[in-house]
């Protein structure tokens, strides 16, 4: 915390981030006139069929704006730590980056602010946007807080609630949240510099409300269990769309589902069985209804609307 009020534009700020989500925040700070003395992002990584080195979204933006850039392989590397010290930052800002060692997050006098995609302490972890939708939450939010030892547990600066649309998917919420988060982050820096806000400990629910977590999503989390309710499977699909994507198997082939609709009617077949007229619809039975497939991708093919898929797919003889 600063000892006296300051103009936020005079603060020496180091920004740390990697994906597109972080670019919105960095752009917001740059447009507001913040003094970004360095941007720290992930090293270039090989990707694609040619395994060519790919720059992070944050790096691309930093280069476009002519911002000083650091890409350490290891955050405890003595050379990187020395470079960080020489920047003499007042404040560090972290958005969608790696876990920082204490020697890094505790370096600047004003500390290190992190932007998180949930209303902390709910949905601490790597995938808060996905898990909030998967669990059928009606709302979520963004939180700015000061980093400390345990992940996503630091004292809160500001938070803003966001409603989740009943048919909104993770990609759509991500795009709304990155903009809302950028605005809340800038306000946090402004008010922290001006001495208008003070961090406060996270309040753990004590009235019977459970604390939900948001761990990293693995392949096993993406496979659909058709024995669940249609609402549960629907939420899984939209919570994983467009990435990493929920999947099932169609005639033994892996099939990713990107967009679906619910049909609330008692199924006449066992859960996991699909029904189709081979021309206009494809639907799978859940425990209490059907999931009508709208956009899918079967292994070896491109993502496409179900009508286009049905036009070219050869079903087993008994389905024709």
Total domains, how many? 2
Structural class: alpha/beta
Give the number of helices: 9
Q: What percent strand?
A: 25-35%
Q: Please estimate the helix content.
A: 25-40%
Radius of gyration: 23 Å
Quote the average pLDDT: 95
N/C terminus separation = 70 Å
Helix and strand pattern = EHEEEHEHEHEHEEHHHEEEEEEH
Which residues form runs of ≥5 with pLDDT under 50? none
CATH topology of the largest domain: Rossmann fold
- The CATH class assignment of the largest domain is Alpha Beta
Which strand order spans the largest sheet, edge to edge or round the barrel? 5-2-1-6-7-8-9
Count of DSSP E strands? Answer: 15
Q: Tell me, what's the shape?
A: elongated
Task: Tell me what the CATH architecture of the largest domain is.
Answer: 3-Layer(aba) Sandwich
Q: Report the major sheet.
A: 7 strands, mixed
